[in-house]
Amino acid sequence: MGAMTKTQGRPRGFDRDAALERAMIEFWSRGYEATSIATLTSAMGINPPSLYAAFGDKRKLFHEAVERYAGTHGMVTVRALAEEPVARDAMARLLREAARVYSDPSHPPGCLVITAAVNVTSEEVKAELREGRAASKRAFEQKIQADVDAGRLPPDTDAHALATYYAAVVQGMSTQSCDGATREELEQVADLAMRAWPA
Amino acid sequence: MGAMTKTQGRPRGFDRDAALERAMIEFWSRGYEATSIATLTSAMGINPPSLYAAFGDKRKLFHEAVERYAGTHGMVTVRALAEEPVARDAMARLLREAARVYSDPSHPPGCLVITAAVNVTSEEVKAELREGRAASKRAFEQKIQADVDAGRLPPDTDAHALATYYAAVVQGMSTQSCDGATREELEQVADLAMRAWPA
DNA sequence: AAAGATCTGTAGTGATCGATACGAAAAGGA
DNA sequence: TCCTTTTCGTATCGATCACTACAGATCTTT
To answer: Are the beta carbons of B116 and B34 closer than 8 angstroms?
Structure first.
């Protein structure tokens, strides 16, 4: 069953992983609803039946594209929280990384998780990305609260408010990059945002 | 001609202004492309031919809705810059006002100018709202630079960077409110954002 | 070589998109 | 009372949406 590496029948004529990469770029650039099946098949270099056979439907393809984004481009911010032991260093690095990747001209601007489901009708699709953003915000709060508990931050620090603030800054940076902000401008935003850090 | 107040022919059977208000709410809530003519006519209580006779087409109706928004709900932030003589007071008031109106449950969350053209295909529509955001950002920068010139802010203050930062914060607050942030949370974001103010 | 399984491109499905043709209805001007 | 003008509701238009039926092509298995 699952251990079989060669299956009978005509083999797939395209690279599934490369096609998913193209689909992710399209969703990232245009958002979920504005990216039509015709747009996707054209970008992926395949026909609709191949898309549906390989990915199920548009909704499932989007889900895989989000997972792919989270495992690649979206990883840099998560890594900042995981690798930096001190919350302040983690947040400063996260903002600088965001400034860099949001303005990287080798792919669409901004963050897929923040923008791709805006103005989308499907509540299911909106909920999927909203949960992703909520998870990031919770990670911010936990990272901050950990340093409050460790005495590295004042005991009266409001971790929830601070996490909401930095979540808003990151989302604002994403929107600014979609409006054409340069890396330098985003880095200035990142530096200014760190002035709100306690004590 | 234009002075005529009574024109011959069957009179319009609906309130044009009230219908425009309903259309604005729909665009605000769902964005430009996700708001269909069927959605609009249903909300406005009219049929498609009445909409097209009174407003031209969907694009022109959206333009009028944006103008209406700018003249009503969008005015509160502009007024903060106009009425407060000191830039710091103006920005603090603008952020507090944004926290209040973005979370006002009597209308859709967030800011129409920030969200309604996200993931929209029409470059024309995107450009219209982008220009609105750019105008706000320029107003921020001018307000800040005026206080630098007046000596109320340090001479090395980077008005452009600061304006970009506050534009990002406002856009982030709009996104947060669409994700369900409360007025209290947004007010905390506003207060934290003011910690970045110079000196 | 024959059979079974899977992928491929062509060519569609019904639903919905923005936008309209058309005739009946309702007003003012003659 | 007609005639003109404008708006009204009904019933569409072609284009595009996500999605798929179908038959030929290409593989493994027997």
So the answer is: no
Tell me the per-residue pLDDT of A141-179, one tens digit each, with 9 for 90 and over.
999 999 999 999 999 999 999 999 999 999 999 999 999
CA atoms of A130 and A113, how far apart (whole Å): 8
The answer to whether A114 faces chain B, any CB pair under 8 Å, is yes
CA-based end-to-end distance of chain A: 59
Do residues B189 and B109 share a domain? yes
Segments of chain A assigned E as strands: none
For this complex, say whether ipTM is above 0.90.
Answer: yes
Total number of residues shown for chain B: 199
User: Residue B88's closest CA among B153, B150, B139, B138?
Assistant: B153
pLDDT tens for each residue of A22-31 = 999 999 999 9
Across the interface, whether the CB atoms of B119 and A115 are under 8 A apart is answered yes
CB contact under 8 A, B171 and A176: yes
Q: Into how many domains does chain A fold? A: 2
Both B121 and B177 in one domain: the answer is yes
A3 has pLDDT over 90 = no
Do B106 and B149 belong together in one domain?
yes
**Nearest CA to CA, how far is A128 from chain B (Å)?**
12
- Counting Cα atoms < 13 Å in the Cβ hemisphere of A162 gives 25
Q: Which domain holds residue A157?
A: 76-196
Do residues A179 and B168 lie in contact, with contact meaning Cβ atoms separated by under 8 Å? no
Q: How many CA atoms lie within 13 A of B23 on its CB side?
A: 32
Q: Decide if B148 touches A, using CB distance below 8 A.
A: no
Q: Do both B66 and B140 map to the same domain? A: no
- The size of chain A, in residues, is 199
A180 vs chain B: nearest CA distance in angstroms?
A: 10
**Per-residue CA distances from A147 to A87, A158, B109 (Å):** 6, 12, 33
CA of A36 to C1' of D19 (A): 12
* Residue reference for tokens 């690649």: A72
